[in-house]
Amino acid sequence: MFKKVTTDNVDNYGTTTTTDSDSESAAVAAGLKHLESRDVHWYSYLLTFDFWAIIAVGQILALCITGSNTFTSFLSGVNTIIPAFQTLFNYALLTLVYLPFTIYKHGWRKWVQIVLKDGWKYFILSFLDVEGNYFTVLAYEYTNILSAQLLNFWSIVCVVVLSFTLLKVRYKWVQIVGILVCCGGMGVLLASDHINGTNGGSGKNMVKGDLFGLLGATLYGISNVYEEWFVSKRPMYEVLSFLGIFGIIINGVQASIFDRKSFEGATWNGQVAGWFTGYTFCLFIFYSLVPLILRMGSAAIFDVNLLTANFWGVIIGTRVFGYTIHWMYPIAFVLIICGLVVYFLVGTILGDSKKPWLGDNQKDGVTGIGTAKLKALNEARKRGLTGGEGGNEVGAV
């Protein structure tokens, strides 16, 4: 009998669930077998909803990054450069939105159990994220824009290496080619910046800035892989709530230590408050959507998608800062999108949503939006592969 899937189908904290684990496991196995046994072509994944959703969500994320960078430029223009304090509001908003929902879903008792058992893991995730943001901002202060953007490639390298070694992800040659094509598109973008003379000139301390950028990109890469591992096992709202809680603590301490002098010369008025609000809103949307693309795709796809942020930055810059679009920009954007298309020409209907570290039947994963486990359960019900009446599947967010 196929039974309703609850949001707590994977429980590591000793609480009782209503899910029939044996029935669910059999349904997932049947659904995965049917999905993977389909007669697919090299382009099959490109015809799925998931592929276009990944492209769409990726571009929304790129726009959010562009928006946050634009607001940061506005703040920098009035000498309000307070990197740690500026990001603090985003973590506060994540906490305000997702912590009450997490407690509502789990209850206080289970939430405390999660804190005691996995709190240190969430703290590490938040620390990596906060410091990745901080050192990347510092890199832009000391080095030029071209150098800082080139260092962003290092985060993709870190993601691929860590996914291969720690998460047992095995990339096919087509996927490697896709990533290289995307990087080639970014290279064209940077070349056009250099031709236009918009690479920022010479930084005030290039070596120091490049080291900060390299450290920030490394921390970003590690945190992206770590978050992909987390959201494949736990509900997204839980991950985001703890990211917010510990982010407030870490960022608050860092701001009180390193941003005190910056407060003295900063400008404070209604316009600055509006820019802070816009920056926080962009980052909140960004953080809320990242777990979705990590489930449907991977940390590598997430990082590659963000390469298009530079393109959108120029588009917005033409309206806001008077930039001009070089003829190489559209070529760069098309190359990056083509690279994403090539990445998925692997003849599988599940793409990167099936995570190797969750087991063959994804038994260690959460049944949530975008996961291969939920897709398998839905397929099993749709095809009547469970031998029961079925019910309406409800995936954990």
From TrEMBL:
Which InterPro entries does the record match to this protein?
A: EmrE-like, SLC35_F1/F2/F6, SLC35F_Transporter
List the transmembrane segments: 42-68, 80-101, 122-140, 146-166, 173-191, 211-227, 239-257, 272-294, 301-321, 327-346
Which domain of life, per UniProt? Eukaryota
Parts forming coiled coils = none
Asked if Transmembrane is a keyword of the record, the answer is yes
Name its cellular compartments.
Membrane
Q: Does Ion transport appear among the keywords?
A: no
Q: How does it sit in the membrane?
A: Multi-pass membrane protein
Q: Which Pfam families match?
A: SLC35F (PF06027)
Which keywords does UniProt give here? Answer: Membrane, Transmembrane, Transmembrane helix, Transport
Provide the GO MF annotations for this entry.
transmembrane transporter activity
The UniProt entry, under SUPFAM superfamilies, shows: Multidrug resistance efflux transporter EmrE
Family that this chain belongs to: Belongs to the SLC35F solute transporter family.
What is this protein called in UniProt?
A: Solute carrier
